[in-house]
Write a structure and sequence with these properties.
Blueprint (H helix, E strand, L loop, with lengths): L1 E2 L6 E2 L1 H24 L7 H19 L5 H23 L3 H26 L7 H27 L11 H13 L12 H36 L1
Length: 226
């Protein structure tokens, strides 16, 4: 065990160094896989992607700076949320599917909170901090995608082109987050219009302010050490 100079938290050096790279990889793999496979929320593929995101949550909790008992309890809570979501979706029915989607959304938000709790302890900008910020960016797109799907599952039309399922909702979310604006999908209700505008603002402000600032400071810190 050693104290990191940038955080002041006693944690294993290698574990902290590798954590957010692994979390980001798991999040990208699961999200892009869901879109590529055109997976539905009821599919085993979706359950596997949710499991990868659960692992990402556990990884971030292990290096979040909280005590071991609290980390274990939060990991168990994440597992319980994941299991409840799978059961709710697999048993069928519109209401249960909506509950499952809401629980998956809660899991994504839990992961964001776990990462933020760790990153605010950093006193210096380093690669690990940038990877953590990028993980939050991916989780933001995932969360909004699940929110669009949740709106659709409760009977409110999310898209003017009709229901798009899990894959289409995630695709629309990341296109909106990055403000690509392909135009093949458009909001079908006022709540989705509001959510998409909020997501576009968050996506742009986050990249041009938080991540850009961190990357700029990382380059400055590297030059100073040299």
């Amino acid at each position: 065990m050693a104290k990191r100079p940038d955080t002041g938290v006693a944690t294993p050096q290698r574990q902290v160094r590798d954590a957010y790279g692994l979390a980001l990889g798991l999040l990208l793999l699961s999200t892009i896989g869901l879109i590529f496979a055109d997976a539905e929320i009821e599919s085993l593929f979706a359950a596997a992607a949710g499991l990868l995101q659960l692992v990402a949550l556990v990884v971030t909790l292990r290096v979040s700076g909280v005590g071991q008992h609290r980390s274990t309890a939060l990991s168990a809570a994440g597992l319980a949320v994941f299991a409840a979501a799978v059961i709710a979706v697999s048993t069928g029915g519109t209401e249960r599917t909506a509950v499952g989607i809401a629980l998956w959304l809660a899991l994504a938000i839990m992961t964001i909170v776990a990462i933020v709790r760790r990153l605010v302890t950093y006193r210096r900008v380093n690669v690990q901090l940038v990877l953590g910020l990028l993980s939050i960016h991916v989780l933001t797109g995932l969360s909004f995608g699940l929110a669009y799907l949740l709106v659709d599952s409760v009977g409110v039309p999310a898209f003017a082109q009709g229901p798009q399922g899990l894959s289409g909702s995630l695709y629309f979310s990341f296109v909106t987050l990055t403000t690509l604006g392909f135009g093949d999908l458009s909001p079908g209700s006022s709540i989705v219009r509001a959510l998409s505008v909020a997501e576009a603002f968050i996506g742009q402000l986050y990249l041009v302010s938080v991540v850009a600032f961190a990357v700029g400071r990382l380059g400055t810190s590297t030059s100073s050490r040299r």
